[in-house]
Design a protein that fits this description.
Layout: E1 9-20, E2 24-25, E3 31-32, E4 34-35, E5 40-43, H1 45-59, E6 76-79, E7 82-85, H2 88-93, H3 99-105, H4 107-112, E8 113-117, E9 122-126, E10 129-131, E11 134-136, E12 143-152, E13 160-179, H5 181-187, H6 191-206, E14 216-226, H7 237-240, E15 242-244, E16 259-261, H8 263-271, E17 276-283, E18 295-296, E19 299-300
Antiparallel strand pairs: 1-13, 1-14, 2-3, 4-5, 5-11, 6-7, 8-9, 10-13, 11-13, 12-13, 14-17, 15-16, 18-19
Helix pairs in contact: 1-6
Amino acid sequence: MSEILKNRTELLFLYEIENANPNGDPLNENRPRFDTEDDTVIVSDVRLKRTIRDYWYEYKGYNGKDGKDIFVRETEYQDGDKTYISDGKRRATAFQENKDTVLKTCIDIRVFGGVLPLPKDSITLTGPTQFQMGRSLHKTEIITEQGTGAFASGDKKGQATFRTEYKVPYCLIGFNGIINEKAANYSTMSEADKELLLDGIWQGTKNLISRSKFGQNPVLLLAINYKEDKPYYIGSLRQRVKLQSDKNDKAIRGLEDFSLDFSDVIAEIKANLENIESVEIKADARLKFVQPLTIADGKLDLTTL
């Protein structure tokens, strides 16, 4: 079994979305979550975690077989001739209502934490991996598309139903994240779990091929690995990244329309080299940087900064 994490890691994840809905608000006609003060799109941390969980479930075998599972997922049970969706307490019975069994089996509890509704008392585990709300790095807008459905609204109706969809034409969205080694001691998040997390962030986003999410593509994943016993992180990585473009923000339609100004992030990394073990980076080949970066074997070459 892989050893429990000992180092803190700070994450920056950027992804693009084109003509789709990054995170619909069910209380607002499923429109994209939007900050009307600065015209930026907002994406909840819950949406990103769901993306990762779905990837683990669909592609990495965490589907309730061979001792690997996802705790926070919809399951059903039968009562007589009726089928119901399980609540948290019933879900816990699948693991003999035992904390150690849940942690051994469920990667999402080890990585994200959660509330385990056990018989005598609920146990709350703070997840080692936490994300801030995601936000677009530039202004965008919500567009409305209307169309007709394939079926009528009822029997003996002469017209098909109408549908309204809300999308953004294009935006680049950024997430800040932290993997806290102290919380990992309690949730038993391991180095292997961390690798699956990074894989899930990138490939999970790429494999969101639903009607409302098709058009999402991972662009950059930065992981700053701090030295052991260094309880430190830079913070606000997304806020330090800027876009340079000859176009108005709302006219941006792809990676070819801008370059990333990473200079503030690089300056902070240089100022904190005594705290940093390594910097892993994965970037879309189409991405352009204002300041060239030297990348070797998936890591940023710190000697060239």
